[in-house]
Amino acid sequence: MSAFEDAKARWAKIADLAAALSVLHWDQATYLPRRAFAARGRQLAALTETLHAHRTDPALGQLMERCGRELHGVDSESDEARMLCVAQRDFERARRVPAEFAARLAAHQSVGYVGWARAREADDFASIVPVLERTLEFSREYASFHPGFSHVADPLIDHADPGMTVARIEPLFAELRAFLVPLLRRIAERPKPDRSMLQDAFDAGAQIAFARRIVESMGYDFERGRMDLTPHPFMVRLAGDDVRITTRIGEDDLSDSLFSAIHEAGHALYELGIAPHFDRSPLGAGVSAGVHESQSRLWENLVCRSRPFWEHHLPQLQRSFPQLRRVDAESFYRAINCVEPSLIRTESDEVTYNLHVIIRFELELQMLTGELAVRDLAEAWNERYRSDLGIEPKGDSDGVLQDVHWYSDLIGGQFQCYALGNILSAQLFAAANAARSEIAEELAAGQFGSLRGWLLDNVHRYGRKLEADTLIERATGAPLRLDAYRAYLQRKFCDLYALDVGSPASTDATSVARTDLGSAFQ
Amino acid sequence: MSAFEDAKARWAKIADLAAALSVLHWDQATYLPRRAFAARGRQLAALTETLHAHRTDPALGQLMERCGRELHGVDSESDEARMLCVAQRDFERARRVPAEFAARLAAHQSVGYVGWARAREADDFASIVPVLERTLEFSREYASFHPGFSHVADPLIDHADPGMTVARIEPLFAELRAFLVPLLRRIAERPKPDRSMLQDAFDAGAQIAFARRIVESMGYDFERGRMDLTPHPFMVRLAGDDVRITTRIGEDDLSDSLFSAIHEAGHALYELGIAPHFDRSPLGAGVSAGVHESQSRLWENLVCRSRPFWEHHLPQLQRSFPQLRRVDAESFYRAINCVEPSLIRTESDEVTYNLHVIIRFELELQMLTGELAVRDLAEAWNERYRSDLGIEPKGDSDGVLQDVHWYSDLIGGQFQCYALGNILSAQLFAAANAARSEIAEELAAGQFGSLRGWLLDNVHRYGRKLEADTLIERATGAPLRLDAYRAYLQRKFCDLYALDVGSPASTDATSVARTDLGSAFQ
Which of the 8 DSSP states describes residue B246? Predict the structure, then answer.
């Protein structure tokens, strides 16, 4: 099969150059000197252009056509057939984007990133508006390269979550919202748990050391990765044996850094678990942003915000932070699961989190369709927080500038994955527990082997071999659906807030006007 | 001048891709996870191959020919003419090296680096012999691409120090040796200063903080660079505004980390001082390894191992390390300038340092000509240390495995720059002091502005615009020669060891047999 071997060598080279590009991104987000951002932008642009040329080389297209003939009759579910199929889709998608566009975009994104960091520090959205207006133009231009979609956001969504569309997401989010809003309203009427123990002076070094121990116990391998500090935590695969996580430290808040490290380690376990023979092939990556997010959220919420987890781990935490020595596990569990509308998505609780996501998703659509001008974005953002969550950002850095996505990437397709991931995290966790009854017992003993094993066997090892929809269907016996997530949230939060589980939690979506919520939390 | 503008854009892209490659190297030497070295090797190979293709693109060659016609009649010392001249030389040199060789070499170097790190840890030269034998083959193959030199090492030397040859270096090193050996012999007869204050427990964090303060006061700009830890310190230019240094910490030795940080900062000031409009052009780099080393050694030795420097800075050091509070400046100055044959080049004193270099230079030549087999290198190394310095490595990690050069690069041209740099450091420092009389006074007050300004005006800003020989001649009024360096060492060490300056220090080279030295230091 010589054409296929040639194609594999080309895919491997593309993967290696893409990894080099990711090293530059990682460095930019962790260690780049303050005045080096402009230079880094040019370097990223040069490498992006080169990578794009390799990805869209007509010779690669011809080679893959020959591969298609070579593989004629081969099982369409074989590794080879799937590699070729995924590679051809990538090729087609890349080919539609002109090289000069890719280079211009890379340079723009680097400017955007540094502009965002400055604007955020200065709490000044207005300063970044011209950059973001260009980003919106880039986003529409990107969409225009992929005709045949029914909504301008669809190509952008498809890029992150292949197979997803506005038409699939909007009803799902409506259903989600219809269930969350009444739950949130009922919780708001109950007494709030005490969170004060989490807001104290916590030594940064001790926080890092504790986070390292936890992610290591989850199975994250520091010989195949590392953990560094960054303003906006992320995970990046630089190779099958080099999957790095990042976190940030709030010296007056324990939960932010801990749960962000766990979250990123959840992503990393996915990448580290992909079958080694998929490394440097088109299959050597997570299948979609939503499935990726299901892995981070599963570990962050279903495992590490659970009661058994802290019954086991609180004593270790107390050894690192003696000021917590009088706290009992139940109080700690209640504190880290306190539901309260807040301004920052990444710090928000499990019930309100999806509302943050839905706001962003809808604002993205409005900008792309032209209903909302970029210059009005901060005001629209604040208005949505007032109406949907009943609170208002103090400034832009707590509001529209909090997430890096729009400022370092495109507008569109950036946020749906977070809610999809939440939904999937519960669906997968339920399937894992149904398949392996020992998981619950192990979790209570601070052990994660069976859970990790099930995830490895049913999700991680496949990489991009199975499409996301197929993966979910095979792993859980059902397509993506809300049931498990709704049941999980209901069970957990009705218990925490002493609510009657049986009471109506799925109000018709249309009956929940946005303004309904405002008063509940003021 | 459209061909020239086109060429500039191509040079800029080459510079950007080369910078990306350097980011991968920097990351490999500082933060790469233990099990990621094989993957990094493949990434370096892929990017090297891509870079090589850009550097040797026949279209670039044709474009530069058109530039030559465009620039006909333009002053040959103009920026444009020099850019083209240097770029054409680079092109010709790169074109001679086949792309597949460059890729194979990059992959091999990465294997070599990780093999070296392991062999050094295990103190086991034998384990790396097969790798080093391949390196020697690579080195000879590299030399064979550049016919017309009179010695097999010449193309390798020329790559680092353009214009230098074995024929120029051998007599210079003989003269150097002839002067150092009697000086060393006389020093050996004198009482040794007390060095014990430098060997104590010094907090790593305090060492890093102090080193940061010193390099910052030298003028190193942390907004345009950073300092990280690595086993083998180096400086790397990632962009005109991103020039990074590295250091290592010995918790039981104060001088190693401090002087290595200063050394690398000396290199960095050179790169940071290159005229900004040379950035991303063929002129945007230091002109030769020897001139580069002159900058690091000037700051390390002539400035920071001087009496006035410590008269000013010792109180600051004492605030960082209270155990030094009873030490006076004169004793400290004597301690950091203690002359004593030792095993590690980078920790050796100014008098013996060049002997370390000469050993390596000669062993390189012997390997390249086939006089010495790689498998016999450790023994030959140890034999030379016995005969030349009167001491013997305890193991390979103190001996032949101490320097990374041969294991991560080629054999040949790796070490002459260190002795050339020493010689030039004194020649340049003397010229600077002659030109600006305020330098000495400023140094005594802990100020470096006038010295840095002279270096900027006479060395740094030129980048590769002037050839090394021209640069030296214009900056110092004379070609490279030993006089200033000999005078400097004589003045400094005759004072330190209470020797008569007038006594014969330049014995005829041939009269100093290698074995003469052995007895003097046993």
Answer: E
B214 lies in the same domain as B121: no
CA–chain centroid gap for A513, Å, is: 28
Q: Chain A: give the shortest CA distance to residue B54, in Å.
A: 10
The model's pLDDT over A286-337, given as tens digits with 9 standing for 90+, comes to 999 999 999 999 999 999 999 999 999 999 999 999 999 999 999 999 999 9
Q: Are residues B353 and B230 in the same domain?
A: yes
Contact B24 A27 (CB under 8 A): no
Shared domain check, B257 and B200: yes
B20 contact residues in A (CB cutoff 8 A): 20-21, 24, 43, 46-47
Least Cα separation, residue A229 to chain B (angstroms): 13
Q: What are phi and psi of B245, to 5 degrees?
A: -115, 165
DSSP string, A131-174: HHHHHHHHHHHHHHTSTT-SSTTHHHHHHHSTT--HHHHHHHHH
DSSP letters spanning B412-480: SSSSHHHHHHHHHHHHHHHHHHHH-THHHHHHHTT--HHHHHHHHHHTGGGTTSS-HHHHHHHHHSS-S
Question: Which of A120, A148, A176 lies at the terminal end of a domain, its last residue?
Answer: A148
Q: A20: which chain B residues are within 8 Å (Cβ-Cβ)? A: 20-21, 24, 43, 46-47
How many other C-beta atoms can be found within 10 angstroms of the C-beta atom of residue A289? Answer: 23
A521 found inside a domain:
no
Preferred mutation among A35, A216, A228, A281 to probe B, highest tally of B CBs within 10 A: A35
Pair of tokens at residue A522: 């003021």
| Cross-strand bridge partners of residue A236 | A244
The CATH number linked to B495 is 1.10.1370.30
Report angle CA B42, B47, B50 to the nearest 5 degrees: 130
pLDDT in tens, A42-82: 999 899 999 999 999 999 999 999 999 999 999 999 999 99
What does the pLDDT look like over B422-443, one tens digit per residue? 999 999 999 999 999 999 999 9
Q: Which H or E run contains B25?
A: helix B2-30
Rounded distance between C-alpha atoms, residue B423 and residue A411, angstroms: 58
Give the pair of three-digit tokens for residue A69: 């003939």
Comparing CB atoms, the residue among A17, A39, A239 nearest residue B36 is: A239
Q: Are residues B136 and B204 in the same domain?
A: no
Residue A20 falls inside a structural domain: yes
Domain boundary residue, one of B117, B148, B179: B148
Judging contacts by C-beta atoms under 8 Å, the chain A residues touching residue B238 are 36, 39, 43
Task: Give the position of tokens 């955020």.
Answer: A120
What's the domain range around B276? 166-511
Average pLDDT over residues B191-219: 95
> Which DSSP category does A371 fall into?
S
Find the helix packing angle between A166-188 and A416-435, rounded to 10°.
Answer: 80
Q: Rounded distance, CA A105 to CA A97, Å?
A: 11
| Residue in chain B nearest A50 by alpha carbon | B50
Q: Specify if B134 maps to a domain.
A: yes
Quick one: B171 and B80 in the same domain?
no
Q: Is A117 exposed, middle or buried (0-12, 13-18, 19+ CB in 10 A)?
A: buried
Segment B76-102, tens digit of pLDDT? 999 999 999 999 999 999 999 998 898
The confidence score (pLDDT) of residue A503 equals 56
Domain total of chain A: 2
DSSP string, B31-76: T--GGGHHHHHHHHHHHHHHHHHHHT-HHHHHHHHHHHHHTTTS-T
Residues A412 and A287 in one domain: yes
> Tokens 């032949």, residue?
B400
Same-domain status, A470 and A396:
yes
pLDDT of A522 reads 31
CA Rg value for chain A:
23
Same domain, B26 and B170: no
